[in-house]
Amino acid sequence: MRSFSMLLLTLIMSCITMAQVKEEWFPSGLNIKPFEANMLEPKTGFSFMSENRLRLDISTSQDFYKKEDGNASLSFGGDLFTFTRLRSESDFHFPVEAIDYLFGFNTGYKVVNQVDEYGFRLRLSHVSAHFVDGKYDLQIKNWSDGDSPRVYSREFIELFPFYKYKGFRIYGGITYLFHVTPKNIGKEIYQLGFDYYMNWLNAGIFVPYIAYDFKLNKIDSFIGNNIFTGGLKFGKAFGKGISLSYSYFAGMSVQGEYFDRKETYSAIGINLDF
User: Fold this and answer.
1) Contact between 177 and 187 (Cβ < 8 Å)
2) Tens digit of pLDDT for each residue in 134-144?
3) pTM for this prediction
4) Which helix (H) or strand (E) holds 11?
5) Which of 40, 75, 202, 256 has the fewest C-beta atoms under 10 angstroms from its C-beta?
6) Do residues 76 and 98 touch, judged by C-beta distance below 8 A?
7) How far is CA 26 from CA 29, 63, 207, in A?
8) Dist. CA 16–CA 220, nearest whole Å
9) Are 124 and 105 in contact (CB under 8 A)?
């Protein structure tokens, strides 16, 4: 009788455990939400920069598979990004000067508790950069501003662990470039940042937010990039919606063709969050 009771208890516990496991192909939303101030995130929108420059991002990230076991979730997905720099001219013309492409795969793991959560995102990606016809000056029959195209390419693996408490999320990051051109770019990148959505304000259909990202990368020597952004998110704080933002950037250019050029600018942007 005791053996039968133990067997029955084991079967019941196994059924309970199995009932907690949920598998889904192509789930809606992302298991790990993009880090707001990090530049290499899926963005669909544009930013009006200083000096008649614009940045247009058309990119997406999709989870292919997600497995939930109790309060833990594991996902596998893919990324396909474009980051484009344009120039504003009269008659509503916006010549495209430079574009960067990113594609790769990611996996995410997250544990959600009552008021906090923690986990990580791991990505394997490729980035390449190119000048476009808007950079070419037809009058002088050459590339403008004394620039000329150069090969920029990198393949990398990155790990971003994070911890989130209510609306505040902090993260660290380490990126290793196992192949990179030009060769004077260092192979390690270190990051630290946060995003904070002020849900407690109960503002209605929008949520104010602020975010900051610090990136330490090496181009001959180590140099830091600082990005601060803040604004209003219409929709879900860590979900779908539209963001209106102000951003301040100081550091080396995020465009690969300008990788060794220091830039400081402010930008007003709009982004669609999926």
Assistant:
1) yes
2) 788 777 778 87
3) 0.86
4) helix 2-20
5) 202
6) no
7) 9, 6, 28
8) 56
9) yes
